[in-house]
Amino acid sequence: VEDIKEDSQWIESEEIKPESVTLNKKLNTSLIKCGDYSIKYVTNEEVLNILKNRSSTNNLLLNAEHSHSDLITAVYEGGLKVWECTYDLLNFINDNDIDLSNKKVLDLGCGVGIIGIFSCLKGTTTFFQDYNSEVINQVTIPNILLNNIELDKCAFYCGDWKSFLDLLRPTFVNE
């Protein structure tokens, strides 16, 4: 386990507005089926190809991915892949027929966003959070669009968890 350096410069949390994200209809996608639901998502390889063709601001994500590292403290937190536990949680929610309608869900460390997408399809308002804004813009939001989910049922955030808590707290304290 890598020691967290006290002088690490964590990314301050901020809300991301999805209006500037467009969906390329020619993206390579994959599919996860869970019960009556089919969830489309952009493949990891496709995202890497997109990032390679973008400006140098994405080099940190590409470097992490090319070094086969899931976690680089204060740089990259593994958002370009579907984690194995995602399937376990999907099956648990589905197999136990958990009613999510009209609930609020936080997909913390959402990455590809499979759990949040599944929650949206089951009637939630979902807050998607990932450390890197590139993950939200290049993966999470396109996956929301691929699944025809209304963007007004979603909110998107990037940055570290401590500042995210401070940012989101007013949303829940006032209710």
What would you note in describing this structure?
There is one protein chain. Helix content is 37%, strand content 18%. By secondary structure, the chain is of the alpha/beta class. It has a single domain (28-170), classed as Vaccinia Virus protein VP39 (Rossmann fold), CATH 3.40.50.150. The strands form two sheets. Strands 1-6-5-4 form a four-stranded mixed β-sheet. The radius of gyration is 16 Å and the shape is globular.
Question: What keyword list fits this structure?
Answer:
alpha/beta; cytoplasm; two-stranded antiparallel ribbon; Rossmann fold; S-adenosyl-L-methionine; SAM-dependent_MTases_sf; 37% helix; 175 residues; four-stranded mixed beta sheet; EC 2.1.1.85
Summary, kept brief:
The chain is of the alpha/beta class. Helices cover 37% and strands 18% of the residues.
CATH 2nd-level architecture:
3-Layer(aba) Sandwich
Q: What separation lies between the terminal Cα atoms?
A: 39 Å
- SS summary, helix count: 6
Radius of gyration: 16 Å
Please give the share of residues in helix.
Answer: 25-40%
Number of domains: 1
Strand arrangement, major sheet: 1-6-5-4
The geometry reads as globular
Q: Class in CATH? A: Alpha Beta
**Which fold name is given in CATH as the topology?**
Rossmann fold
CATH superfamily assignment? Vaccinia Virus protein VP39
Mean pLDDT across all amino acids: 82
Approximate strand percentage? 15-25%
Low-confidence stretches: none
